[in-house]
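Need the bound structure for FE2/S2 (inorganic) cluster, inputs here:
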Amino acid sequence: MDIKEFMGQVDGFTEAVGERETLKRVFGDLSIPKNFAQDYIKLLHPKKTAVTVTDIFSETASSKTFRLAPLDGYLPPFRAGQYVNWEVTIGNVKTGRALSISSPPHQRGFYELTIRKMEPGFVSQYLIDTVKVGDDFFISGPAGFFYHEPLTDGKDLVFIAGGSGVTPFRSIIREVTERGLDMRIWLIYGTRTTDDVIFGEQLSAVADRHKNIRYELVVSEPDSNYAGTAGFITGDVIKKCVGDVKGKTFYLCGPEMMYRFVQPELIKLGVPGRRIKKESSGPPPDVTKEPGWPTGITADALFSVIVNGEHTIKARAGEPLMIALERAGLVVPNQCRSGECSLCRTKIVRGDTYMPDRVPVREADRWYNYVHSCMAYPISDLEIRY
Ligand code: FES
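Answer from helper R.:
Posting the output first, comments after.
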């Protein structure tokens, strides 16, 4: 007996099929197309989107904003504060960089990504020095959790930015002001010199026009003409800017060093941990200065890595395993490149790696020796699988 014959013997089945045919004749075919859910998910969350550079804006001597428009007319929606991974091929190396979207989400025709040239940082140098209008790339779908969550974050938000960490805040502030959302925002922006300030004029202008936006620049090494707040973002500076911290949610985006300084200041002011959100800060500029780095291993120490039992490559202790693999033409799936999304999960079959404590690895992964290769550094010869 086949399935049709079997179903024909179920009470009411033939009548239900007849009823469905009648409904189709009267109202048209309302059945959900096959693969409807998958197709819809792909549309909202494509793994990759082909884009072209339509404009480039110089922000400071070392930073630029790139406007990227879709090649096929569509960019997936995102929440202000999220990032995309910009894929690039430099020589023979296929790599990428996770960058916060600095344009607001209601701007549907393009994304703007703002990047500062880092030393060392061969991707940022390539993007700043080489990319021109008309170049085509792939970017990942938007990702990340560094956005305003109305149910838990409330309406009073304090943004603390360091360097190019101001980019997601530009997106959120533009969404709030251009859509007239009911929120109050204090942006405290720390830079080394006034020449390093990204979006400085735009931010001042927005704060002048909107009562619910306050902007405070804090410069650590100002020149003699500077009359604003100088030094670091201490508890006193924060208190002076925002007043009572109660009921406010603090968002931090910048280098890890800034987090290590600002977070204890916030705790001293009485800000509960659940009211502090941090954007992941990516690999440290010098991993040998991280707490727990093994003594006696220099950044230039070279180790052999056997990959998937098929390739043997060399990897430098001072560089994430993922970069060593990419240099050898081996691409591990990746998105955040900061240890957060776990797409680059890699099994260490033999040998040791170092990962900063802040990398959120699942307990089960620790037991079975999986690491996030974007934030794992070789400290011995290795055998790995991914
Ligand atoms: S790429 Fe996201 S954890 Fe490594």
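Comments: DSSP finds eleven helices and 19 strands in the chain. Residues 334-337, 339-344, 372, 374 surround FE2/S2 (inorganic) cluster (CB under 6 Å).
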